[in-house]
Amino acid sequence: MLRIGSIELDVPVMQAALSGWSDLPMRRIARRCGAPYALNEVVLDQAVLRKGRHQRRILNVAADDHPVGGQLLGSRPDELADAADAMVRAGYDAVDINFGCPVRKVLGRCRGGFWLSTPAAAIEAVRCVHDAVAGRVPVTVKMRRGMDDSPGSERSFFEILDGALSIGVAAVTVHPRTVRQRYVGPSRWDFLRRVKQHVGGAVVIGSGDLFCAADARRMMEQTGVDGVAIARGCIGNPWIFREIRAVLTGRPIPAPPTVAEQRDIIDEHYRHVIDTYGEERGSRIMRKFGIRYGEYHPLAHEVRKAFVDIRNAGDWQAVMDRWYNPAVEWPPTKRKVAPGDLIAAGAG
Fold it and tell me: What is residue 312's predicted lDDT score, i.e. its pLDDT?
């Protein structure tokens, strides 16, 4: 089990906040496949505070979407605090502060990973959010291991880490790449081990290069982190959560999903998307998910291309009827491992 403040998870795994991906439909599918906790895609504090359709969607927490964390991105402690309060009042079960996003336009506006270069301001932001939430839900922080590989950047990381824990955050998620690295180069799991040794009993969640159940187990065994956050590894592969459940509870890993099982999940995901966004917009949104689901099909190259060519709901149905036809004897699917051509999905 894993405890994050008042939130108790029966297995120490969660779906990370994924910009442009981890919306309500994706979170529902992650839970369906075994994720005990999921975070909303990272949102700007100003989007939470500014009235309009986008605000209403962010603050509409579904009854079946619990426990759910809201991850916030911003540049001003007071606005982060106001947005955190609004999310808690809307029904979010935790607030996560993003100090890790490496996207250039985010850094240029003093958000995300930029905070790692200003320890005093970052600690003040944590304090403001923690005070605003006032013990109603746990506050957590997402960090990278620094802006770059310099000793000064590492000192700033630990200054922010210690400050956040002294304020009372319930957990810290650490991605052991630097902001400058983005998603290129090695993810230094040895740094996670150092962080966990440094904080002792405080809850540390590991992130980075987790693309299969064996990765999750290795990270926990090698670093001592208390849990893992699955980011890019669950896009198009929600079955990773049932596999991690099996590995961490001493059971055999389930067989890879058959084409028929894949169709069931994709169809369910599609229905959730259409219910959430409507058919026209939903079909466009679902196309990017289809491309990633296609990586699991025995004929992945052809199926991904078919999803790429989708333009409307009719095209979607044609692809499903052609490539996920239950009457066809498809070759067996292979277990998904870290693909070399994954595109960074925006996870901070």
Answer: 87
Among residues 33, 101, 128, 212, which one is catalytic? 101
Q: What is the CA radius of gyration of the chain?
A: 20
- The whole-chain average pLDDT of the chain stands at 92
Neighbours of 250 (CB within 10 A): 6
Q: Is 212 a catalytic residue?
A: no
- What's the maximum distance between 2 C-alpha atoms anywhere in the chain? 62
In this structure, which CATH number among 3.30.70, 3.40.50, 1.10.1200, 3.30.565 belongs to the domain 259-323? 1.10.1200
C-alpha distances (whole Å) from 47 to each of 59, 84, 133, 135 are 10, 12, 18, 24
For the chain, the domains span 2-248, 259-323
Mean pLDDT for the stretch of residues 337-342: 42
Query: In which element (H, E) is residue 228 found?
Result: strand 227-230
pLDDT in tens, 249-272: 999 999 999 999 999 999 999 999
CA atoms of 282 and 318, how far apart (whole Å):
16
Residue located via tokens 């540390």: 204
67 preceded by a cis bond (ω within 30 of 0) = yes
